[in-house]
Amino acid sequence: MPDLWVAGIVFRSGMAARKEPNYPEPELRIDAKLGTEGLEGSDVFGELRITLEAERSADAKRRENQAIADPTLGAAVPVSRKVAFTVLSLWLLVGLPYAHPALAKWRLLSTPEVAIVEDAPSAAGGPLPAASMGEAKLPGETFDQQSRAKELEARNEDRGPIAKKKTDLAVALNVGKEKKPPRSIEDPSGKALDRFFAKLQRVEKKEPGAVARVLYYGDSIVASDFVTGQLRRRLQSRFGDAGHGYALIANAWPGWFHIDVARAASSEWHVSTCVGPYAEDGIYGLGCASFQAHSKGVWSTIGTAELAEWGRSVSKFELEFLKQPGGGTLTLTVDDGESRELSTDGEKALAWESVLVPDGAHKLTLRTLDDKPVRLFGVRMERDVPGITLSACGITGARARFLDKQDDEQFAAILKAAKPDLVVLAFGSNEITDGTMVSMESYRETLSAVMAQVEKAVPEAARMLAGPPDMASSNPSQGRSRPMVHFITENQKKVTAERGWAFWDQYRAMGGGGSMWSWIQAGLGSPDMFHPTGQGGTVLGNWEYLALMEAYDAYRAHAGE
Fold first, then answer.
1. Domain(s) of CATH 3.40.50.1110: residues in the chain
2. What is the domain class of 136-558 according to CATH?
3. Is the whole-model pTM more than 0.90?
4. What's the first-to-final CA gap in the chain, in angstroms?
5. Each residue of 156-191: pLDDT tens digit?
């Protein structure tokens, strides 16, 4: 695929990045000029402030190390000529033998096989501090955020300072009109997606009861629902809208929202998640977040969308909750009409309560009736028509291994209840920020263990890993990209091949190392240097859709259709 030149930015789709990228500086230096004051309104993912602070801290540390190693920094590190000469002489004696392999026998120091210098971990990355057991109170109300869908089509002038006055790269790429993805899905087994594609064939033929369900797990990139929201839209536009899928009853993390669905909740819910604070029983529900109320009048609502053409109808709400001894009672109200009561008292067990409605626009309101504990997880919205549902289960700050925080038996039960035809795991960004603190062997083992759990719970489902996008770095010596992105991607690819899963390489679809730096300048990447904006999510969601459809067409051709 030829390079695309847009306003001085080179964009390489599906091609390896240059070893020494020479990207132009953004109009506003991320690490130097973008302060942390006044970020509350733009901190979409709840991670921007500390990410920027970590970047600046890393830069300061690099400058400190450079000052120690380089005696010619002038006023920054004043040294005498004699000291400078001494340091330079020592450098020549010690360092010169490393300039050529023939001088190896004169080397005084051993060299590690691989040396990777990483920036300081961001808020979404690095080993998490020891999380407490129990639950935390939500920081506030969960407000309806379906208007966030506008960001999928936002023009660059509507974005932040980096994107202002830049050419709209998404428009230049004719987003939504491409015929081929920049990166195809890799499937050495040749059959990892066959079960999903077989269901799609039934859906496409409009067979009664044919619903293809996609269960999509990931980190905060999935929590924003930009990429998955666009993927959902594209799939439903082609195969039919069978409902929005699963969503949490409240926002467990800052920046958690779904497009094409109406949601709101009171602030009195207490939450436990698989990234902490941990539930003592290890039960978190499908979305890895458990919400408990301890008083009367705590509420949550979920309903069909009002501001977009997608998500306008539902015929079944399915509430996921926990029965427990001494559990309280709540009311379930549809469209502000008559209510019915649901008791959560009973032997401890996961449970599901269905509310059937005439197919169309509806809203379900949940409200506690007493002070006894009521523990809820999420609501699934579906329709009794052939089509697609996509349940985006984003977990801010999570690595793939955090799915294993769940009780194994309960995790298997919720996966089975979701009835997925395709399970996608999209983790890696937070593992990237762990740097070399976690060995790749350990990473492969924990990732493989989670994949094995999925296989065991839903053996009939197709399975795919979506690799992480590129993560920008403010360090030019790293090619503006964190080196660990490559290593995480390659190790994910290795594990998927071993376990017979499909793999979609977002990193190389974007253009490889350094591509996120260009995306930031074009308004497709956020200033925190690893989340796509709404418009960037549109690009990635479209590409993933095209990659799936390319594989689906190959499947159909092989089947003789």
1. 136-558
2. alpha beta
3. no
4. 29
5. 544 443 343 344 454 445 555 668 999 999 999 999
